[in-house]
Amino acid sequence: MRQDSRLSRVLHALLHLHGMEAPATSDLLANMLGTNASVVRRTMAGLRSAGIVAATKGHGGGWSLAKPLDRISLLEIYRALGSPELFAIGNDEDRADLPAGARGELCDQQGADGGSPAV
Questions:
Q1: If I label 75, which of 53, 90, 113, 119 is the partner at 20 to 30 A Cα–Cα?
Q2: Where are the domains of the chain?
Q3: Is the pTM of this model over 0.70?
């Protein structure tokens, strides 16, 4: 199961925006977050719709906080992201090639580190 990392990435981005004097471009934020600019734009658009960030177009433009960081709640951010699943329980890697019952058996047979079966 792939974990949704949008919430942690957005929190990271908002902290950076808080410390910046000028708007941050999507490219700059993408570099900081280890993703690409189109992902940043798509994610930030939801935050803009929620009134969390503002976008300035043109030369010297980019993303900035629409209100002070201490006036933004975690719940607001969570909802602006579409209420993503916060916790993923299970393996990082789904084994869709196995029947449902065998998936649990495979997990039971693996060692504590998720590697080879315990002997």
A1: 90
A2: 6-80, 89-119
A3: no
